[in-house]
């Protein structure tokens, strides 16, 4: 038996963290606090933009603001490409994760202390870049804790997902009450404090992670450093030029991110599939990920409307008064994480109990998409109602269905991605998964412009039906997809 601590965990001997390797606790912690800061900020971001200046906001048009939120959310996941590339070519996943956490904290500080649109722009750019680096690499580091045939793998990712949602639950509660009582910038400051706590915790535990988490899978030759520095500089100059010439504007930002993300995803698939560093089995597995990618885009384009359409719905249509107390708008974003916290252990236990008999990843994806479509159809009984006429229990029910859909598709999605990933493209394959989330999130912001509170039936009906149809289509293709997955389920 090897004497390396991380390798003992991969030998299924370490069960100190709720039956999982102890090293999972360190990644669990930093991800929990990162999600606290991320969702705490995102829960108030849209209303910060469209609230009037007199109410502490920026007075941005609602349609433009929802597009910016979608574009920002998409950019977070788009930035996983950069984080994955830095991990695979220069620094390794663990180091990128650590440095990214510092960038995130700087972004929240910028939102808290810099004024007006300058603070918004600088803060969102830093948080997007940092979150992109952290997200793909945290998932990749979790994957290093398990051998490919470790039956605890899906349960481990579900536990990891519990940490994400514990932070997502607490963040909007704290920032929401601070925004309501003392103002937006105090709330953004609380997000910065949360990320600082995550950094402190992770700094003590990062040395215990396995050496494989720190390895650079495909080191960049020193003679190519100059070329890549030039490419980065040219890309930055191009973005600045497009902004200054008006090609990229606030009102078309979501469309730009959708286009860039779609092109990046196609390019990434082509690069990996055509690589001479992978064999036929690995290539087939990457191809099998394409239908899962497409369904995941559809799922997240509905799910991420929690931060666009549902925020507006909660502000204008929802009765938020409970026992004489009016809940802050952002508290609605803490409802789904409560259900994840309550149900993730149940789902983890079910997948562990079923073992090899559990539904395959394509089946889980299909069911997740169909259930998400059902959640949108559940808005219909209260469609076109009067202001503040939708009862809070109705949204609780709808978000419960959101959560069930999420647990079918998101933790298994992270897990199957690491299992399908070729060895030389491990972190970059995880970034492909997050590209599907990026595309869905940007589409969520773009779709919000079509939401009309006076005529909601077409919006919720059409989107719900499309999601259900996508799930049915994937169910019909399960056998050929599994054949392409070459033994991975």
Automatic annotation (TrEMBL):
- Location of the Major facilitator superfamily (MFS) profile domain: 1-482
* Keywords from the UniProt entry: Cell membrane, Membrane, Transmembrane, Transmembrane helix, Transport
| A GO molecular-function descriptor | peptide transmembrane transporter activity
Membrane topology, as annotated, equals:
Multi-pass membrane protein
One GO BP: oligopeptide transport
CDD domains to which the protein is assigned, alphabetical: MFS_DtpA_like (cd17346)
The transmembrane residues are 36-53, 65-87, 96-114, 120-146, 158-178, 184-204, 225-248, 254-274, 286-303, 329-351, 363-383, 389-409, 430-451, 457-478
Give the location in the cell: Cell membrane; Membrane
Q: Which GO terms describe its cellular component?
A: plasma membrane
Q: Which protein family is named in the record?
A: Belongs to the major facilitator superfamily. Proton-dependent oligopeptide transporter (POT/PTR) (TC 2.A.17) family.
Q: What is this protein called?
A: Peptide MFS transporter
């Amino acid at each position: 038996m090897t004497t390396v601590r991380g390798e003992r965990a991969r030998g299924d001997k370490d069960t100190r963290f709720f039956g999982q390797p102890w090293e999972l606790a360190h990644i669990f912690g930093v991800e929990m606090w990162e999600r606290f800061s991320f969702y705490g900020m995102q829960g108030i971001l849209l209303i910060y933009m469209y609230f009037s200046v007199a109410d502490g906001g920026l007075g941005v048009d609602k349609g433009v603001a929802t597009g910016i939120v979608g574009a920002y959310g998409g950019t977070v996941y788009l930035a996983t490409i950069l984080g994955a590339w830095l991990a695979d070519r220069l620094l390794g996943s663990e180091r990128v994760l650590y440095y990214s956490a510092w960038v995130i904290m700087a972004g929240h500080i910028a939102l808290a202390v810099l004024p007006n649109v300058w603070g918004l722009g600088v803060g969102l750019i830093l948080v997007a870049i940092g979150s992109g680096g952290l997200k793909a690499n945290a998932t990749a580091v979790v994957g290093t804790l398990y051998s490919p045939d470790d039956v605890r793998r899906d349960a481990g990712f579900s536990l990891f997902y519990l940490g994400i949602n514990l932070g997502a639950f607490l963040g909007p509660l704290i920032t929401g009450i601070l925004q309501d009582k003392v103002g937006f910038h105090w709330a953004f400051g609380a997000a910065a404090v949360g990320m600082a706590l995550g950094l402190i915790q992770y700094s003590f535990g990062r040395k215990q992670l396995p050496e494989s988490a720190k390895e650079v899978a495909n080191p960049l030759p020193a003679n190519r450093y100059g070329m890549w520095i030039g490419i980065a500089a040219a890309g930055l100059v191009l973005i600045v030029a497009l902004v200054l010439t008006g090609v990229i504007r606030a009102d078309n930002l979501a469309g730009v991110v959708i286009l860039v993300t779609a092109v990046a995803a196609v390019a990434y698939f082509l690069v990996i599939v055509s690589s001479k560093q992978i064999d036929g089995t690995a290539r087939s597995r990457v191809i099998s990920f394409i239908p899962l990618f497409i369904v995941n885009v559809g799922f997240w384009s509905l799910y991420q409307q929690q931060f666009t359409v549902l925020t507006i719905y909660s502000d204008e249509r929802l009765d938020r008064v409970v026992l004489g107390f009016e809940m802050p708008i952002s508290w609605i974003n803490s409802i789904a994480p409560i259900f994840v916290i309550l149900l993730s252990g149940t789902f983890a236990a079910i997948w562990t109990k079923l073992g090899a008999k559990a539904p395959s990843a394509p089946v889980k994806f299909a069911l997740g998409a169909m259930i998400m479509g059902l959640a949108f159809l559940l808005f219909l009984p209260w469609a076109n109602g009067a202001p503040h006429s939708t009862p809070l229990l109705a949204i609780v029910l709808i978000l419960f269905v959101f959560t069930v859909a999420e647990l079918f598709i998101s933790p298994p999605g992270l897990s199957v991605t690491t299992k399908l990933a070729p060895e030389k493209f491990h972190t970059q394959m995880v970034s492909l998964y997050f590209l599907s989330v990026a595309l869905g999130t940007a589409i969520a912001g773009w779709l919000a412009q079509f939401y009309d509170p006076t005529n909601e039936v077409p919006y919720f009906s059409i989107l719900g039906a499309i999601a259900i149809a996508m799930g049915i289509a994937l169910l019909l293709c399960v056998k050929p997809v599994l054949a392409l997955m070459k033994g991975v389920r």
